[in-house]
Amino acid sequence: MPEAAVVRSFRKIHRRWLQSLLCVFLIIPVLFLTINQRRGEGICFTNTDDIWAVRRFVTALEKGDFEKAAACMNYEELYHEVQSLKVPYPKTVGENYTTAMLTGELWVVTKKILTNISSGKNEK
Question: At 119, is the pLDDT very low, low, confident or very high (cuts 50, 70, 90)?
């Protein structure tokens, strides 16, 4: 009878030791993700889905499976997101560029094209 009690106690110690080891192994990634979440960089809780999607996309590109890579993208959502942006055009875009109102829309054109349009020249 005393041997059974010893075996039971060792099983209990072994089970609790494995449970504590499992807890330590779970704490390490949770701590890593928490630190990155606080810093706002690297792999963290809020961007793991995006990272997995990007890895699937890049893996498909590397394998040459372009249809699978294109299926990873949601073009409709991206198109509507870009179209809904209200980004003001800069007054000057660069030394050789300017903004012009053509057919009711704001375009960025080179000053040479704008000069040719206003003077009636058709230069290629």
Answer: low
